[in-house]
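debug: dumping io for the single-chain case to check the tokenizer round-trip. Nothing else runs in this session.
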Amino acid sequence: MDLVVIVVLLAIVVFAFRTFSSFVYFMEIIDIFFRVMHLISLNLGIREFSNFVSAYIPSSIPAVFAKYSSGVFYTILIWGYIIITIVFLVYITKTFFKKK
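debug: decoded output
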């Protein structure tokens, strides 16, 4: 289910913005959101919230890849994710140094 939601959201972003940078930003925003929600659920100490987050929100985008793929396809997806993360770091670094 979580893979379907991510694919639908990616399709909406690609059709709405039509740029590679918006795709990169969206992927990283979703990944950061997943990771922050899991950190909050671990540190908040509310069992119901932790159960909800564990049941309905994946821990990260690589966790979604691991859940729905294996073998060579998983390796290709992870390397694609790594490349997108590197591009995101380049965008963020360029933005940071342009402001100075």
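debug: round-trip ok. Residues 42 and 80 are 29 Å apart (CA to CA).
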